[in-house]
Amino acid sequence: MTDACPPPYPKGHDRHDAVSYAPYPRSIPLARRHVAQLAIDWGHPGVAGDLAVLASELCTNALLHGSLRDRLFRVETSLTGKALRVAVTDPRRERLPDSRRSHPDDQFGRGLLIVHTLADRWAVEQLVVGKTVWAELDLLVGGEEG
What is the pLDDT along the chain (146 residues), one digit of tens a residue? Predict the structure, then answer.
């Protein structure tokens, strides 16, 4: 007899986790710590810090630019044999990420630069309702991080 149920994570992923958060600033450190712990638990402690920073920046953007009152945003973390991915989905499809020049005195405006610098790949996917912004860190063969 075969198991007809699909795996608990998307096809092609070795591991997958999804958590929804309320659109409040206190959710950002919760998501950051959760994603870092997943990287450690999944055997990649060397990239836990970078993955946490990526999650933090994507969640901050979702909160500042993509949130709607009483609508949750979702953080999905996944592992394939080649990469760790963090993806943040928020309800505002029309508010796409946009890199901009920031003045040295600006408090905000550098998040996408950080994402671009740390991630091996990142992109935006528009959904019927909302959007997902994701970033990936490549993993070297044998569990060593790249």
Answer: 333 434 444 556 689 999 999 999 999 999 999 999 999 999 999 999 999 999 999 999 888 876 777 789 999 999 998 999 999 999 876 665 666 666 566 555 556 788 888 999 999 998 888 899 999 999 976 544 55
- Residue 81: phi, psi to the nearest 5? -65, -15
**DSSP letters for 63-91:** IIII--TT--EEEEEEE-SSEEEEEEEES
80, 79, 29, 81: which is closest to 55 by C-alpha? 29
| Helices marked H in 22-123 | 27-41, 48-61, 111-118
Residue with tokens 């505002």: 92
Distances (CA, A) of 89 to 81, 107, 134, 146: 23, 24, 9, 26
The structure tokens 């996917």 sit at 125
Q: For 90, list phi and psi in degrees, rounded to 5.
A: -130, 170
Of 60, 16, 20, 65, nearest to 38 (Cα)? 16
